[in-house]
Amino acid sequence: MSTFYHSTRSGTDPVTSKQAILNGIAPDGGLYVSDAITTTALDLEGLASAGYHEVARRVLGALLPDFTAGEVAACVEAAYGDNFDTPEVTPVTPLGADWLLELYHGPTCAFKDVALQMLPQLMSVARRGAGDGRNVMIVTATSGDTGKAALEGFADVEGTGVTVFYPAGKVSDVQRLQMVTQRGSNVAVCGIRGNFDDAQTEVKRIFADEGLRSRLAANGTVLSSANSINVGRLVPQVAYYLYAYGRLAAAGAIAPGDAVDFCVPTGNFGDVLAGFYAKLLGLPVGRLIVASNTNNVLTDFITTGTYDRRRPFHKTISPSMDILVSSNLERLLYYLSDGDVELVASYMSDLAEKGLYTVSPQLLARLQETFACGWADDEATRATIRSTWEGEHVLIDTHTAVAKSVLDARPSEGRERVCLSTASPYKFSSDVLAALGRDTSNLDGFTCMDELARLTGTVAPRQLSSLRDARELHLDVCDRDMMGSFVESACARVFA
Ligand SMILES: *Cc1c(COP(=O)(O)O)cnc(C)c1O
């Protein structure tokens, strides 16, 4: 039972959750999943009065069974404190007839903080458990927000280092500045010439590179991941689905057992998969609505059953969702096929070799039982930011607006609906300001931030406005084939 996790591509070689967190990805290239999740029922008693810490302890306790209750409690305490600007951690507020789950109150103003303030805590416990004194280098590809959140979470954490690759020219000004100004003696940041999928593919290759791994192992270093392929990132995200449910119950909007729908702006499918985990664990989840931008590969997949990444990549105003290969879908396929590892492995090899796969009609039917989908282009996204501000006086960012736009286009199915809000609008000031009708063509990022504050009477988070005085420390940009050697030299420097 303590070996709770195994690969999506083989049922053999099970590992504990501590090992899964340290490894990041399974040796055969699959992602770690647990079969027990379908039979584990979470304690949903008293959710309406449970605080965030209590909810997080229940979720972590159930999904990381080899962590002691004391370890879980200490991790929760350390991860969700003053670093969030509200003790609620992820408050729920009204949004017209629906609800907004605000996931951007952490140190980097994006939802990634909820998981990445926790992952270093889990990793430290797991390292102590391994007891071999090895150092862990986190290697992460980012579409913009994971990178900063990983840097912030792991900076100066004993025995760890963090290397981040971002697609140069394809993240917002503020996102880039957040990363290149990061301080800490154990951090490395590099832009790559290519897009997020290129970076993520190369990071996966680096993890599978035996030669590199053994050279690093000889120096006492292992590689791990802070992308949502790591279970230590996925598990903390399950908590806010429960917390949101509890808030709706506390507000009297639902009675115990009523199902709730969630609409999730999606890229790598980590966030929405956490909602599916919540459902597997017994939370009354109605529909999970997968919202995409113009890179709408998931809309097509959920509609037709064919996942086809052979399509143009679009750079949009919701860059953290500019993804054509959604890694965590592999976990969903595992669960929807009742754990058919050969089938999952064959879909994944088709995707790698041919660029597409088609799931069986049975699997598609099961997918559509729970998941709905929709997409919004940049124009619809802008229109939604504007109408939400003018109609509700709620200022939302470009990613949240994709979800809200998809939600608005769907008829209600009679259930309460929660729209996940994944970033502060100030992270994308220039696009948000333009959506409100301002001409931003000659304005830099910080002028846009000031202007957005003035126009809306809201306040820019200090950790973003203070970037204007921060020094740029990490100026490297490299080609994709140099990423491996960049990681090696970062390990040599950080763990010297
Ligand atoms: C990462 C991110 C997303 C997409 O989340 P996934 O877990 O990759 O699906 C959406 N919005 C924002 C602001 C993000 O940073």
UniProtKB/TrEMBL annotation:
SUPFAM superfamilies: Tryptophan synthase beta subunit-like PLP-dependent enzymes
Cofactor section: pyridoxal 5'-phosphate
Keyword RNA-binding: no
Residues of the Tryptophan synthase beta chain-like PALP domain: 102-338
Keyword Lyase: yes
Limits of the Threonine synthase N-terminal domain: 5-80
Membrane-traversing stretches: none
Enzyme Commission no: 4.2.3.1
InterPro entries, per the entry: Thr_synth_N (IPR029144), Thr_synth_N_sf (IPR037158), Thr_synthase-like (IPR004450), TrpB-like_PALP (IPR001926), TrpB-like_PALP_sf (IPR036052)
Domain of life: Bacteria
GO molecular function: threonine synthase activity
Keywords: Lyase, Pyridoxal phosphate
Pfam families given in the database record: PALP, Thr_synth_N
NCBIfam families, alphabetized: thrC
PANTHER family: THREONINE SYNTHASE-LIKE 1
Protein family: Belongs to the threonine synthase family.
The protein's name: Threonine synthase
Gene label: thrC
